[in-house]
């Protein structure tokens, strides 16, 4: 029997690979090689300048998982993720639902709530550093007007993580509001009008119609916000530098601390922590896709 003709001529396949080569080269250069180098360094010792020396296998990982400080860092990272993702997504959802009400100046309010999206991490951290200033900060000024004692927002281990998380929530709020506003705008007006004709309004309309239809957007924000929280570094470095007493030292900051902070160049230990961070990010993303996406799909 004659062979069926190929779905695409060889020339077209070659042309497709030619178009793909620039993207593959960039991918290999900026993702593939650094990933390989991280695994390589994590399996080698290093000298005072950070250059790899002898092969040590899993010694860095053994020392890491045998350290009580590492589990404290994992707990701090988990708390930071909870303190930023949950309030950030739920707060944006509440704001978007309120903005869907028939309010005057709603466009101005939407622009105001989306404004944090225009701030860089460094500028937002500096602004919150001024707010948290123990002597001249706005927050302690408000507490003094309420006849409450001043709080050590960034120097008390009990307050520091919450303070950094609050700055992170504000920083991500604009993006979350924009995504959910776009989601609400994509809901057909005929759906909401039909629900209103059936007597649904206010909280019932939001609970039965708006929030379920926003399921894919909420799922997207939860995944992206979790990854961003696990990778947050700038605000921690500017506001607390991982302190006080390592109260705000997350996994990503621990990588920086081992590799660069205070003249350190322990790239092997830092790379092992980076590999663990990669595994944590992949695991969290896989769990969210396995659990939340299924609920969104069957909602």
UniProtKB/TrEMBL annotation:
This protein's GO cellular component annotations are: plasma membrane
Pfam families from the UniProt entry:
BPD_transp_1
Instruction: Tell me the domain of life.
Output: Bacteria
Q: Does the keyword Metal-binding apply?
A: no
The keyword Cell membrane appears for this protein: yes
One biological process term in Gene Ontology: transmembrane transport
Cell location: Cell membrane
Note the PROSITE patterns from the entry. Answer: ABC_TM1
Sorted alphabetically, which SUPFAM superfamilies does this protein's record hold?
MetI-like (SSF161098)
Q: Where are its TM segments located?
A: 14-36, 74-99, 111-132, 160-184, 205-227, 270-292
Q: How does it sit in the membrane?
A: Multi-pass membrane protein
Looking up InterPro entries in the UniProt record yields:
ABC_transporter_permease (IPR051393), MetI-like (IPR000515), MetI-like_sf (IPR035906)
For the ABC transmembrane type-1 domain, which residue ranges apply?
A: 70-288
User: What UniProt keywords apply to this chain's record, in alphabetical order?
Assistant: Cell membrane, Membrane, Transmembrane, Transmembrane helix, Transport
Q: What family is this protein classified in?
A: Belongs to the binding-protein-dependent transport system permease family.
PANTHER family cross-referenced by the UniProt entry: ABC TRANSPORTER PERMEASE PROTEIN, INNER MEMBRANE ABC TRANSPORTER PERMEASE PROTEIN YCJO
Full protein name: Glycerol-3-phosphate ABC transporter permease
